[in-house]
Amino acid sequence: xxxxxxxxxxxxxxxxxxxxxxxxxxxxxxxxxxxxxxxxxxxxxxxxxxxxxxxxxxxxxxxxxxxxxxxxxxxxxxxxxxxxxxxxxxxxxxxxxxxxxxxxxxxxxxxxxxxxxxxxxxxxxxxxxxxxxxxxxxxxxxxxxxxxxxxxxxxxxxxxxxxxxxxxxxxxxxxxxxxxxxxxxxxxxxxxxxxxxxxxxxxxxxxxxxxxxxxxxxxxxxxxxxxxxxxxxxxxxxxxxxxxxxxxxxxxxxxxxxxxxxxxxxxxxxxxxxxxxxxxxxxxxxxxxxxxxxxxxxxxxxxxxxxxxxxxxxxxxxxxxxxxxxxxxxxxxxxxxxxxxxxxxxxxxxxxxxxxxxxxxxxxxxxxxxxxxxxxxxxxxxxxxx
Length: 386
What we know:
Amidase signature (AS) enzymes, 35% helix, alpha/beta, 10 strands
């Protein structure tokens, strides 16, 4: 692509090379959403987030590959071909913002923008060993971003460090920043399931111990109704996907990537009654989380329950996606921010392991403070693929 011209002057992001996911519009540049449906689609104007980046002095240098229409967590289903993980090309980079995570990890850009509906910033951050933010819903404009499910969609920055993610967020946020300092970090004894890869569980426990060493009070916490959260999110997102792509499903199904078609078609079977029940479930889940954040400032959980999967693992697409997103989807029901950051490497595969820090709505500053302190005494975020 021909990169847009950066603004003159000493903006807060001056000189930073930033790539953007291919569902975020850059004026005069193709915006394909990884789909054959949009092969000839060229954006007529910048997305609001791109306009803000350029005004802050950043150089938007790349459009980045993604899962088609931001559907899926492996980034294999793109009309441009699959994205591979720079740590091991035989493994997935996470998704749907796979190109965004890969480009940062490989050093092709200094930072990137992804979008996160059910985990699409956080999963690539975990799989690629970088830092990524799902912000408070509505804190960053979605204008000029092709939607998946508006009640869940967010744009989120990705970079190596919490410090860089924080300064990009400061440029992109549409409202005032809320100050705050974390004191208590809650760690669920079991989050969704106890079927977690032992190396992942150990890395997250070690991260909790490091936070304790830094002076945070680390306490056990329970997340009410967490076991229902993934099904609630799936019901709401897939019903929105089916409505958005109904005409494409009915009239040109062959243009979809097979994995995308399989997933968006799931929503055709979701009834209004099921959607209404899921909406009520989301309200109840948020009510329960409010009690949790009355007790603690941050909740620490793994980002994925497994090691980074192989590209050709032979698993059923839907089953693999549910498993990878088992710990990210529940936090999408929450209206507050989640920060994903690397906390180790798997002793068997050598792949990155990620954890999530989640706070109440508009309390990004609390996450940034804790995450930055953690990265000052650890080196996981500075490691690079060979």
